[in-house]
Amino acid sequence: MSRDVVVAAEVRTSRGKNEARRTRVAGKIPAVVYGAFKDPVSVAVDPRAIRKIVHSESGFNTIFDLAIEGGDSTPVMLVDRQVDPVHGGLLHVDFKRIDLTKRLKVSIPVHTVGEAKGIKLQGGLLEIVTRFVEIECLPDDIPEHFTVDVTELMIGQTKRASEVGITGSMKLISPADQVIAHVVALRAEAEPAAAEAVATPEAGAAPAVGEPEVIKKGKKDEEAPADEKGKKGGDDKGKKK
User: Fold this and answer.
1) What is the pTM assigned to this prediction?
2) How far apart are CA 2 and CA 56, in angstroms?
3) What percent of the chain has pLDDT over 70?
């Protein structure tokens, strides 16, 4: 969370598509603030400040102060946004007031660090299965991310959600055995000899279905004994005489 971030907001006295269009032409976007058992308030904010929060390390988990013109600052979170499908610009955002004394459920990103020994020593592959875990905690305890060290992982070993490092008021909501990352063996390649045996049929084997069989004509004459060939030729000569 970033309570040091303050976003200025102007109250919008009217609603509707025309009013929203005028707000965007003026360089701001329409927004609404609700929650904490208070009436919703329509405001206008600078889209650049919102984009900066969305792309920060804590992203949607960022708690910041919304300073409404003519009123007090209130801690809020960005809970929803509408984006132009063509240009990608922000069209509208929703803010939720946050009670700093009540627990929240949030999804926290998980970062992995280190090079697994199973990669260097065994030729394995590190597979990231889950990049977020869900926790419950007080707003002031929301972490930007969790870090999991995978250096000691060998093939078949796993890092699970229970190892992310829960502290303070945090309570793990995701299943404790949820896999974060593990090292797996690469698929073994077929042996060349086996592949060659499949590709080349054994001698004397019947031709494959659909494969033309080659018949060698005249082979018997070529393999006939020389004396038989001569005898046959002599008989022919005798008959001519």
Assistant:
1) 0.70
2) 10
3) 76
